[in-house]
Automatic annotation (TrEMBL):
Name of this protein: Acyl-CoA thioesterase 2
Organism: Diaminobutyricimonas aerilata
Phylogenetic placement of the source organism: Bacteria, Bacillati, Actinomycetota, Actinomycetes, Micrococcales
Segments passing through the bilayer: none
Protein family: Belongs to the C/M/P thioester hydrolase family.
Domain of life: Bacteria
Subunit structure: Homotetramer.
Length: 288
């Protein structure tokens, strides 16, 4: 299946169809996935790239809010329509709809701002965590497991992921708490394109955020009968950071009820700079 990072870059290289009505139209490929469903982070990142393509270069994305409407088919390409909702003196707003077979699979609104100065503060990165070099990679944690999803997670994802305190692939070790952290970075080096790094960060932000819900209830990905899916996803970019350097994704779940769980995340550079914040509600169902 080739190099995973090269595959990610190809996936984010959308084609401008040249079609113009009141919207800009782009198309992009889907990455192969073991269950045949498009990874949510992929369509989020592609929708963001489509919106970026219609926005002045000096305006930087600072937030997006998206709803997953239908499962995507990983065997089909995706069409993206971008509505240029508003261009003001400092801010621009874009709405991206992602379609397959004429049906929307994701609806997203993103906001862009001209770089400005202002008040500044941030919450601190969690302290006293092990470094990524002290933790096993996904490939090491999944070594020897004969299962197509495990093989894909171990070898085909474009990001190295190292869990604190440990992954929840097969079991939940230690206390059942509603928080965890994951060190992440891309395998290989990405081009010096800040928007590409922002889109790749959106891609990675969908990987593990629901696991804070799982951990609280002692649920692993291998729990029999588990059904989990992202319902919506919000993200705010605070400061620029490269995704081919290690970053820490600190995650917590303040609530779960009615078959849904809410998860929050903060993404820091290795030096402790707060790069982005994330919120996602997901469907999480386990048999009684």
């Amino acid at each position: 299946m080739g190099d995973p990072l090269t595959g990610l870059l190809a996936t984010l290289d959308l084609t401008d169809t040249g079609a113009r009505t009141r919207e800009d139209i782009f198309t992009g490929p889907s990455q192969w996935a073991p269950l045949g469903r498009v990874f949510g982070g992929q369509v989020l990142a592609q929708s963001l790239v489509a919106a970026i393509r219609t926005t002045d270069a000096e305006r930087i994305v600072h937030s997006m809010h998206g709803y997953f409407l239908r499962p995507g088919d990983a065997s089909l390409p995706i069409t993206f329509s971008v509505d240029r909702i508003h261009d003001g003196r400092s801010f621009s707003t874009r709405r991206t709809q992602a379609y397959q077979n004429g049906n929307p699979i994701l609806s997203m609104i993103a906001s862009f701002q001209t770089v400005d100065e202002g008040l500044e503060h941030q919450i601190e990165m969690p302290a006293d965590l092990p470094s990524p070099e002290e933790l096993p990679s996904a490939a090491e944690a999944l070594r020897g497991v004969d299962h197509p999803i495990a093989e894909y997670w171990a070898t085909e994802r474009p990001f190295d992921m190292r869990h604190v305190p440990s992954p929840v692939y097969f079991s939940v070790e230690g206390e059942h708490v509603a928080h965890q952290a994951v060190w992440m970075r891309a395998f290989g080096t990405l081009p010096d394109d800040e928007n590409l790094h922002r889109a790749a960060l959106a891609y990675a932000s969908d990987y593990s955020i629901l696991e804070s819900i799982f951990r609280r209830h002692g649920v692993s990905w291998a729990s029999p009968g588990l059904k989990a899916a992202s319902l919506d996803h919000a993200m705010w970019w605070h400061r620029f950071g490269r995704v081919d350097d290690w970053f820490l994704y600190a995650q917590e779940s303040p609530n779960a009820v009615g078959g849904r769980g809410l998860a929050l995340g903060h993404i820091y550079s290795r030096e402790g700079v707060l790069l982005a914040s994330v919120a996602q509600e997901g469907m999480v169902r386990v048999p009684r």
